[in-house]
Amino acid sequence: MKTEIDVKSKDFIDKFFEKSELIPAIIQEFETNEVLMLAYMNRESMRKTLETGYTWFYSRSRQELWNKGATSGHLQKVVRIYGDCDNDTLLVIVKQTGAACHTGAHSCFFYEIWRDSGE
Amino acid sequence: MKTEIDVKSKDFIDKFFEKSELIPAIIQEFETNEVLMLAYMNRESMRKTLETGYTWFYSRSRQELWNKGATSGHLQKVVRIYGDCDNDTLLVIVKQTGAACHTGAHSCFFYEIWRDSGE
Question: Could you identify which of A37, B19, B41, B80 might form a hypothetical disulfide with B93, taking C-beta atoms 3.0 to 4.6 angstroms apart as the criterion?
Fold first, then answer.
């Protein structure tokens, strides 16, 4: 299903790329509020995300646009997008099909490196 | 209350700064799972976060270390820290005192820029 971009959204794209060509996009699961991953968007991947309703990123290592799940089937259907207070980060709320992480884990943040000893 | 860094955590610091001097840290609230903000950590701010149990960041605009809430009182007590699958992003779970955002909003992501028309 294609989703329309409204005029307001088109105007917002430029605002997010004034400071940098690439901005971080936090991907959070709609149903559970679990943080699934972080990836980077450039102007074009943000535009394609808004046009298609599925997440597109820019891969810094491969230097190319990347439709999350295009090969694995683990697509992310976008439900909401929030900008932050200074317009340099996105919070993208998605319905995740399958696993978000390339390791097969549901979230990329499966690795606890520290916990407060009092908790 | 000071919290000890264990040896495992010390080893992990280096691993996160192999690709870049600065890595994004997603700040998520422990009680609600709300994503509050994103800020950047360098090696030193990660070390100070682990040592003190409160968040320290590196401000890209001011080019200095920054103890979140030091002036506003809106401290973030760290409960858990997760690394991601490729060791270049942190997910920091905190107990937030007051507002995370400098605007006074609880979360920096208060600005909805898009929603799926079907939701």
Answer: B80
- Is A112 part of a structural domain of the chain? no
CB contact under 8 A, B33 and A37: no
User: What does pTM read for this prediction?
Assistant: 0.92
* Domain encompassing residue A82: 10-96
- B101: its two tokens: 């955002």
Q: Locate the chain B residue with the closest alpha carbon to A103.
A: B85
Q: Is B11 on the interface with A (CB under 8 A)?
A: no
Please determine, for residue B7, whether its predicted confidence score (pLDDT) is greater than 90: no
pLDDT digits (tens, 9 = 90+) for B59-82: 999 999 999 999 999 999 999 999
Q: Which of residues 34-73 of B touch A (CB under 8 A)?
A: 34-35, 37-38, 50, 53
